[in-house]
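dumping this here before i forget
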Amino acid sequence: MAIRVSRALVAAACSALLLGACKTVAQREADEAKMSVLDVIFSWEGTVECSKSPSPSFVVRNIPEDTRTLRFTLTNDADPLAPYGGGDVSYTPNPRNMAVLTPGAFTYNGPCSRVIVGRYKWTVLALDENGRTLVGGWARKNYPQ
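structure:
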């Protein structure tokens, strides 16, 4: 009898885990859908390689009206944990729902691909006044081009 109870408990625990995993997949899909809303365009022009660098120029479109901050983060596809950083930029809503940032809006660690071409990704999050993520977007480019 004890074996049947143990098996029943294990089965219940496994079912709970599987249901949790399904929710995680659904949540991940919802998060991915939110991350494809912003249209992000940037240029590497003026970037300082492998050291502190002024941010590139950016155009970000489809920004929701509730956005108050745009958060920029640079990652390297080959080493996503590398500390390139990024920065936050205040955003004031406008009728075009877009932001045009000139180089130097923030400072970050420039891409570092001295030997081979690296693939880099700028992620941009639109945050509300409480710092909650509304939507996001990204753009990838090689460096050097």
